[in-house]
From TrEMBL:
<protein>
    <submittedName>
        <fullName>DUF1127 domain-containing protein</fullName>
    </submittedName>
</protein>
<dbReference type="InterPro" id="IPR009506">
    <property type="entry name" value="YjiS-like"/>
</dbReference>
<feature type="region of interest" description="Disordered">
    <location>
        <begin position="67"/>
        <end position="95"/>
    </location>
</feature>
<dbReference type="Pfam" id="PF06568">
    <property type="entry name" value="YjiS-like"/>
</dbReference>
<feature type="compositionally biased region" description="Low complexity">
    <location>
        <begin position="72"/>
        <end position="89"/>
    </location>
</feature>
<feature type="domain" description="YjiS-like">
    <location>
        <begin position="28"/>
        <end position="57"/>
    </location>
</feature>
Amino acid sequence: MTATVDTQTAATGTFARLRTAFVAMMTAAARRRAARELRRLDDRMLRDLGIDRGDIDAVVYGLDSRRAQKSAPVAAAPASSANDNADAVQTPRAA
């Protein structure tokens, strides 16, 4: 019976590590996509958002100390409409 318990524990641990790696990859992809979308905006639009072009990576990856107290890092660029959200990646939430 201990062999069964050890196998179940190992399987659970392996699944948890795979899930953590998957979530990390999806989060990284969403952040890269958000940075790419922000870089496509012109300077006026970035100013409207309160972002300088040189601060895009800091904002997206949560390194902007000016915003740290106000909000969490940007995970993905906001969709402009429900129809544009078709190819958005859904990041699984931790259980």
